[in-house]
Every structure is written in C-alpha cells, then in structure tokens.
C-alpha cells in the first residue's frame, strides 16, 4: 500500500510541475499579447479613425442628397398648393359675384345701368314737357325731373344700405370659404 501511495505522490509531483510550467507559459503569452496590443493598438486606433472619417463623408453626402430631394419635393408641393389656392380664389370670386348679383336682383334693387337708363328717360320726358309747356304762360313750380329724381334718390339710398348689408354677409361667407381653402391647402402640402 505504501508503494501505491508513493506512486500517486510521484504522479502528483509530476503533474504539479506540468501545471506550473503551463501556467507560466500562459502568463508569458498573456504578457506578450498585452505588449503586442500596446504596440499595434495605436496603429489600429489610427486606422479606425481614418475609416470613421471616410464613413462620415459618405454619410454626409448621402444626407445632403436626401435633404436636397426633400426640399425639391416640398417646393413642388408648395407650388401645387399655391396654384390650387389661386384657382379656388378665382372660383370663390366668381361665385361671390354671382350670388351678390342674384340677391340684389331678388330684392328689387335697381342696378347702376337701370338707374342711368331711368335718369336719361326722365331727362328726355322733362324736355318734352318743357316743349309742351313753352306755349303756356304759367311755368311749372317743380320740374318733373326733380319730382322723379326724389324717389330715385330714395331707392338708391335704400339700395346702398342693402348693398352694405349684403357686403357684410358676403365678407362673412368669404372668411368661411378662405378658412376652408387654407385647410384644404394645408392638407395638400402635408
């Protein structure tokens, strides 16, 4: 039994020496790797910096190209929205003029042309009456033109008041339509 124990002790001593030698070699390999990393670490670092600078230039060029594309697209959308808004304004103006004209005619307000025609007719009739009265001794106290002019002036005054009311209503309608047009334009741009 003593022999077995000594054999095991000899094997343990031999194994212990091998382990010491292996751990020493591992330690020396680690130190060598550390020294090598220190020497070449700065070279690797410089290479990484160069690669990073090159990559940064590529990324910047790409980003600039994307920004230019987006700016061109947004500019096109703005131009399109502006033209659509201008078209909407033209249509709005036409509709507004038509509605005001219909409202004024429904109210029985004479137009400027109607008043000019009536005034010319009154002047013509006044001349005819004066020719007829030229042979008579007593002149008329009030000229017929003045007698007809008073109701025309009253109608014109009333028409102006109605026109002011219509303008106020139309302004409100225009504001609502403008708000709708702006909303539509913002949707087109987005």
Can you tell me about this structure?
- With 190 residues, the protein is mainly alpha-helical.
- The protein has one domain (2-189).
- Helix content is 91%, strand content 0%.
- It contains 3 helices and no strands.
- Helix 1 packs antiparallel against helix 3 and helix 2 runs antiparallel to helix 3 (144-189).
- The mean pLDDT is 78.
Quaternary class: single chain
Terminal Cα span: 95 Å
Number of strands: 0
Low-confidence stretches: none
Instruction: Give the number of domains.
Output: 1
Please work out how many helical segments DSSP would assign: 3
- Work out the radius of gyration: 52 Å
Element string (H = helix, E = strand):
HHH
Mean pLDDT: 78
Main sheet record? none
What form results from the Cα inertia axes?
A: rod-shaped
- Decide which structural class fits the backbone: mainly alpha
Range of helix content? over 70%
Q: What portion of the residues fall into strands of 2 or more residues?
A: under 5%
Provide the descriptors you would attach to this structure in a database record.
about 190 residues, mainly alpha, about 90% helix
How would the blueprint of this fold be written?
Elements: H1 2-106, H2 112-133, H3 144-189
What is the compact description of this entry?
By secondary structure, the protein is mainly alpha-helical. The protein has one domain.
